What we know:
Layout: H1 3-35, E1 40-41, E2 44-45, H2 48-83
Antiparallel strand pairs: 1-2
Amino acid sequence: MKPKSWALLSAFGCGIPTLVGGTVILSFGAWFLYQEGIKTIAGIKNDPDIMIPIAIGISAILAVFLGCGVGFLVYRWRQKKEAHRPPVQSI
């Protein structure tokens, strides 16, 4: 596969689990705090209608940064690997 294909595959492979896992972790964290009686977090009302979109937004931002970073690093790594590969000889 070409370096660009590897970069896109690895970017989405890291970005999507970050989005899903981060949303779940932040949502459960807010829910457990709500169950313990903490009704505000940093001045924001701790309500599921408010906290779930905030958790999705935070996770989305982190997923984009992580996906771009991993994609860039894999692209560079695959480019260097392709450069050192001997040319294919056809018969």
